[in-house]
Design a protein that fits this description.
alpha+beta, 4-stranded antiparallel beta sheet, 4 helices
Length: 108
């Protein structure tokens, strides 16, 4: 019975879809640290950040970022988020539509 199930086309399609999904998740995880700028100030548990997207942010993006900090505005293709925990930076960088995360410039 198992031998027949492993030979079926449905099983091959399911395994291929599963492999693609796991590969996609792995790529998102590996790409996230490269999107985070290295020049964050070392003091404090929370940081103010500027998240750059490849397009103007929509309501969905702003609402998602609000779960990690206070959204204080947008600038063309970027969203300003204040009070973000350092531990959440990689989680924020994971979506494929996040291009870059960097410190919010002073006075920004």
């Amino acid at each position: 019975m198992w031998r027949d199930a492993l030979r079926s086309r449905k099983t091959h399609v399911l395994l291929a879809a599963l492999a693609c999904y796991l590969g996609w998740q792995l790529w998102l995880t590996l790409a996230a640290p490269g999107k985070i700028a290295a020049n964050f100030p070392s003091a404090g548990e929370k940081v103010n950040i500027l998240i750059t997207l490849p397009f103007p942010p929509e309501r969905f993006h702003v609402q998602l970022f609000q779960t990690y900090g206070r959204v204080s505005g947008t600038q063309e293709n970027a969203v300003e988020v204040r009070g973000v925990k350092r531990a959440d930076l990689e989680t924020l960088a994971r979506p494929y539509w996040v291009s870059r995360i960097e410190p919010l410039p002073p006075g920004g």
